[in-house]
Amino acid sequence: METCLGAVIAGNMLPVRAAGQPRGEGPRVSPMAQRTVSKRSANAESSSYRLSSSSEEPMISVRRFCRAVAPLSVLLACRPESDSIVAGLLADRFASSEWSEPVNLGPVINSSAVEANAGLSSDAHTLFFVSTRTGGLGNLDIWMSHRRCLACDWEAPVNLGAPINSDAIDAAPTMSEDGRLLFFYSTRGGGFGLGDVYVSHRVSTGADGDVWAPPVNLGPDVNTAANEQGTFYVHEPGEPNAFVYFNRPTAGGSIDVYRVAVSNDGDALGPAVLVPELSDPTATDQKVAVSTDGHELLLSSMRAGGFGNFDIWRFTRQSAQDPWSNPTHLDAPINTPDLDSQPVLSRDGRTLIFTSIRPGGFGMQDLWMSTRSPGGQ
Prior knowledge:
Blueprint: E1 28-29, H1 31-40, E2 47-48, H2 57-76, H3 82-94, E3 103-104, E4 115-120, E5 126-131, E6 141-146, E7 158-159, E8 170-175, E9 181-186, E10 196-206, E11 209-212, E12 216-217, E13 229-234, E14 242-249, E15 255-262, E16 273-274, E17 285-290, E18 296-301, E19 311-316, E20 328-329, E21 340-345, E22 351-356, E23 366-371
Parallel strand pairs: 1-2
Antiparallel strand pairs: 3-23, 4-5, 5-6, 6-7, 8-9, 9-10, 10-11, 10-12, 13-14, 14-15, 15-16, 17-18, 18-19, 19-20, 21-22, 22-23
Helix pairs in contact: 2-3
């Protein structure tokens, strides 16, 4: 029943911590990451986030949860869209819950450089993120890590290489549910402006990794002379086409949220439109993450009412065709006085991965994870 815990996530580029700024105590990491820390250094200062005193109990909890939703999966299994329906119902079940204290994804994913802009494949076995670590092709590159199961460790990340990465900035990776399309933001030459949204088709998958076709610019219906970034792909229930959300600066200096419908091949279907209820004309509103059922949206923003830096805000609605509600600030432990941004939700709505420069990280920006239980249990 591991398929009951998939995810589709993405992000955008953010400023980095100033050199020499104190980082605080050693990071708290997940149990899987803690095992890696122990292997790498006996002197590493870390404290693990433990679900229970028994290493078997977290897996037992997952099995109990999956057994609880198994009858629902069977009832819907004969329908082509059953995967999305089950994921949507699970996302709705978690939506009213409180988030746990965030834990650092650990030294396999995070380094002394910048790690940000996370995205997950639909089965949550592949993690995409951006990094300035050594071994890249440009200033900011897209990297990828695999794991064999949901309870397994993340493997050493690999650079996606050309043609996805270039000698420019390549960031904000977000994948379609079927894994065929990878949308991202790039400042490479040949675009319409300072930064554009691109899409690449996966040509093949093999033992040596995925092969991606040369990226295609989404064109003037999406990209302008300005800087379009912060991409996020989602197919909302009841909508004939998927959407790509992204950010665009305004003449007044703020950054707003737009979206464009895309075809199954990733082509833009008409001009992108502003999402007014998500955009504060006096503030910077960046990357969004939309739940599978389309009822919940997380947004990183510097709007008034937060802790002073980029914070994560929550919007809700009754259906994917309704407007979004007024935002609610997530507060602690998700938000801090430091930068907390680029939220990504797992497909079942249980897991949140985001970028933060809070004390306890490994580098200038790190990826952190928080979870929630159904109905606040």
